[in-house]
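fyi for ur records
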Amino acid sequence: MQTTTPLNQGGMQQPLPNATAVLVLGILSIVLCCCYGIVGLILGVIAIVLAGKAKALYNSNPDAYTPASFKNLNAGRVCAIIGIALSALSLAYYVWLIAVIGIDGLSNPELMQERMKEIFE
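which gave:
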């Protein structure tokens, strides 16, 4: 005779907690990676942390949670990883740009053109 463990109090599957939040944060980390890289990086890291906690909860009792919420969790995690990578590249670009041109060059278009000519000539 096969025994089953109870799913939850109602006997039905429930969505994983924070699965939708992880998906939204992962998508936002991709969209906002161009905001100097910082916003996308922060949102991506938060999504990865939340995904890790929810995945551990799912692994402890997979029958208690809906497969759709687990798919959303994985999609959000993948989006967060992509968002972190893009944000890191964006942040590295802005750091390089400030190091080469300088902050004063970024605020003065004529000075920026002069410094860009120096770099590429």
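The mean pLDDT is 88. thats all i got for now
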